[in-house]
Protein: Inner membrane protein
Amino acid sequence: MSNNNRLTFKQMVLNSCGIVAVALGIAGIVLPLLPTTPFLLLASACFLRGSPRLHDWLWNHATFGAIIRDWQQHRCIAKKVKLRGAIFICCSFSVSIFFAPQVWLKIALFVLFLVIFSIFLRIPVKQSVAER
Structure:
C-alpha cells in the first residue's frame, strides 16, 4: 500500500464520527428524541473531509441523499419528507406517552412533543417547479 492510500488519523476520526452520525440518523427515524437530518448533515460534513468515497455514497444514497442535497442547496425539505417526519414524530411520541408510567412523565413528553413539533413545522418545504 502506498502512502497516498493511507488514511491520516484525522481522516479516521472524521470517518468514524461520520459512521456514528449515520447510525444515529437511522436510529432517529424511529426514536422520538433523535433528529435524523442533523445527524445526516453532520455525517456528510465529516465524510467530506475524511473520505470522498463515503461522502459520495451518502450524497447519492437513494433515501438520504435527496434530504441532504435539498438542505445543503435550498435550506428546505421535500413535502413528502416533511409529511413522513410529522407522522413519525406524532407516532413515536404517542407510543412513548402511552407507555410512560407516571403522569408527570406523560406531561413532560407531551410538552417536549409540542416544542419539537412546532420547530419541525417551521422547516421550509421545497416547492416543485409546477407549484412555482
Summary: The radius of gyration is 18 Å. Residues 78-132 form one domain. The chain has two domains: 1-75, 78-132. The helical segments are 9-27, 36-50, 52-59, 64-74, 79-99, 103-121.
